[in-house]
Design goal:
This protein has 24 helices and 18 strands. The protein is α/β, with parallel strands linked by helices.
Length: about 675
């Protein structure tokens, strides 16, 4: 992930003048602020926070008068953005603090977070406010002044809310969850919380394999959140009105609401060899397996057009429209593609309407048409035409992600003229057709070349290629082919425009993820991943092709946490108390700190990351059900090792993965 720490701060005002910013002028520029050494900032992080200031007005006063002038990017912490919702606390029955365990710039770019914020605030008797992870300089200042983690809407301490909800987007942010709980004055361990503490819930990708975080979260809500969050808000409201205890409310949610997992009421058991035997409910009435929720009809699902407009540039500074949820391609490494089945599109007409309303309410000059595979949208040409009818006359750009070059760039060049042409992203994932067959990436090399040539012809200036190393069955020839294919793509520009094309190559380490056909596979060793990197760089010749690698050590930890059981909670707690946080950021990540925590807890990093699982072994996420049949995943695993492709189910018909049968009738019809 790119660092934001050292960037030059922008002026603290909206990109267009619609409302003033309630921030003293002396805080609007931060170029002259000193860069705090990381060691100095982290030196006292092992000391628990003791928040003393709880009055919102006093918190606001201290921020303005004493704190914000001494931290970088103070606009992260001031709130008051356009379209932010501020409700009267006296007028609501249930309050949610939605916490994103990364910095403001990242969290504000996450669409799902804004969807839940909008849904909850759309309920008459419910209020939702926001908080983000505090950068270390802000943590230090707040610690010095006894200020707890607060929400941006009201400056109210987070622990005063009824519910605290985390979005678990990435395993390497788990330590930030613990740090945010500590900063809020909420006991980190769920077992230590009392009647006066909020209920701590979590959703997002991390909830699909929740056991490593089970000691810290009261309730997990795996799957789509649009419906379950409304049901849960109503349950909490009724519980408060009837005087039900916090513990009884948690248990009631697990008993009565489909798709809610209360880990404190489930017991893991282990074999003598250390592997998991089962995770079983410890109370009568609790389900053996928790069925993840899925919104059946995306066309009717809520989408916020009054998106919050931040004062500073965020990672994705635009309107993001979710055009389709799900994917039918079946890439065997892709967790999102498996979990988000079945495909549920929005109509072109609905998306045009959403684009119009969202750009009018935010002033953004770019609309991103987003999904796992945007060009697999069933009416792709019509979609671009409909949205373009509104955006073109107003000079609003359309951007696309995840284009499939084989059947789109060459097939609909006339509609792609409406798309802003800067960098086109192509994800072949593997550089040889043999290895692409293993991972079920149904794209030939000739299709890749033809698509990239067409991209240069249509005016794209740069191409970004995504590859993985450490894939099952990978050979040295597969590694060499990464350089050969990348340089071949760069030379294509000379055929249509002269000169070599700029190609940025991003190379990630393959991480075997739960609920995929490769969930039983081991993670490649660190030695191999470093060897693969050196082999690729040693064969690189063209200056127009640049390579960027994910750090192998971080990927190994990601694999351990993604595939881990409840015992890893001990490691998380120990490493966080040793100062670990922002592990997704290069300047804060310490592999040695993590390795030491594993050793001190008597657990093996290799056991979780590098061990192949037996196909009859109980997996730590087996009790979370996304509708995928185990037999389907096993068959896909065997086909991978045979190098056999599985066709797109839109073309070949239902492949009996299990998801379609588990969905409501309205989703099966779509």
């Amino acid at each position: 992930m790119p660092t934001l720490y050292g960037q030059k701060a922008r002026r603290c005002k909206p990109r267009f003048a619609r409302r003033p910013v309630a921030l003293p002028a002396r805080l609007c520029y931060t170029e002259s602020l000193p860069k705090f050494p990381t060691a100095a900032i982290l030196e006292d992080f092992s000391r628990p926070m003791s928040p003393q200031v709880t009055d919102p007005e006093r918190i606001h006063s201290l921020l303005v008068d004493r704190i914000l002038a001494g931290v970088r990017s103070p606009a992260r912490y001031i709130g008051g953005e356009l379209n932010a919702v501020r409700k009267d606390p006296a007028g609501v029955d249930v309050s949610f603090a939605l916490l994103f365990p990364d910095v403001y710039e990242v969290g504000m770019s996450h669409l799902g977070y804004q969807i839940l914020y909008s849904i909850l605030n759309g309920l008459d008797r419910v209020a939702a406010e926001r908080a983000y992870a505090l950068w270390p300089d802000m943590q230090r200042k707040m610690r010095d002044y006894g200020i707890p983690l607060y929400t941006l809407e009201s400056f109210q301490p987070v622990r005063h809310f009824d519910v605290v909800g985390f979005s678990l987007q990435y395993e390497m942010l788990y330590t930030n969850v613990l740090t945010m709980l500590e900063a809020a004055g909420i006991p980190v361990l769920s077992a230590d919380r009392s009647q006066d503490d909020p209920i701590v819930i979590a959703g997002g990708p991390g909830a699909c394999a929740p056991e490593p975080m089970a000691d810290f979260i009261d309730l997990f809500l795996p799957g789509d959140g649009e419906e379950i969050v409304v049901e849960f808000a109503e349950l909490v409201r009724e519980a408060k009105r009837s005087g039900r205890s916090r513990e009884d409310t948690i248990l009631q949610a697990a008993l009565e609401l489909e798709g809610v997992y209360a880990p404190a009421y489930y017991e893991p058991s282990y074999s003598e060899g250390g592997s998991l035997e089962a995770v079983r409910p410890g109370r009568v009435g609790l389900p053996e397996r928790i069925s993840a929720r899925k919104v059946p009809d995306l066309e009717a699902a809520h989408f916020p057009t009054d998106l919050i407009v931040p004062f500073i540039e965020t990672v994705h500074d635009r309107v993001s429209l979710e055009i389709m949820r799900g994917c039918t391609r079946g890439c065997r490494f892709c967790q999102a593609g498996m979990l988000r089945r079945p495909v549920r599109p929005r109509s072109p007409e609905r998306l045009r309407e959403l684009a119009k309303k969202a750009t009018e309410s935010t002033g953004h000059d770019e609309v991103a048409l987003a999904s796992l595979s945007s060009s697999d949208y069933p009416e792709f040409g019509k979609l671009l035409e409909k949205v373009g009818e509104y955006t073109e006359p107003r000079q609003i750009n359309i951007s696309l992600s995840s284009l499939r070059v084989n059947d789109q760039l060459s097939g609909v060049p006339e509609v792609l003229q409406r798309v802003r042409k800067s960098t086109l992203t192509i994800a072949p994932e593997a550089a040889t057709e043999r290895l692409r067959n293993v991972i079920n990436k149904d794209v030939t090399e000739q299709e890749l070349i033809d698509g990239a040539r067409e991209a240069f012809r249509q005016g794209w200036r740069h191409i970004k290629l995504y590859f993985m190393i450490g894939l099952p069955t990978e050979t040295q020839e597969d590694l060499d082919a990464v350089v050969e294919l990348s340089e071949r793509v760069s030379r294509l520009r000379g055929e249509v425009a002269g000169g070599a094309g700029r190609v940025n190559v991003s190379i990630a380490s393959f991480v075997p993820k739960p609920h995929t056909p490769f969930q039983w596979a081991p993670m490649a060793s660190r030695d191999y991943l470093h060897h693969a990197r050196e082999r690729i760089l040693g064969r690189a010749r063209m200056k127009s092709v640049r390579y960027r690698f994910h750090e192998p050590e971080r990927s190994v930890l990601e694999a351990a946490l993604a595939r881990g059981d409840r015992r890893l909670g001990r490691v998380l707690l120990r490493v966080q108390r040793d100062g670990a946080q922002f592990d997704a950021w290069d300047e804060h990540f310490s592999f040695e700190k993590w390795r030491q925590a594993f050793d001190e807890e008597g657990l093996s990093l290799d056991f979780y990351a590098h061990r192949a699982r037996d196909t009859d072994e109980a997996l730590p996420w087996d009790h979370v059900d996304f509708g995928l049949d185990r037999e389907f995943l096993l068959e896909e695993r065997q086909k991978a090792f045979r190098g056999e492709l599985t066709p797109d189910c839109r073309i070949a018909g239902c492949l009996q993965c299990g998801v379609r049968a588990a969905m409501p009738a309205e989703a099966r019809r779509s």
